[in-house]
Amino acid sequence: MEPNTYQQLAARTLIDRPDRNFTDTEMMLVWNAIGLAGEAGEVAELIKKGVFHQHGVDRGKLLKELGDCLWYIAALCTVFDIELSDVMTTNIDKLKQRYPNGFATEDSIKRVDTND
Question: What per-residue confidence (pLDDT) applies to 19?
Answer without folding.
Answer: 58
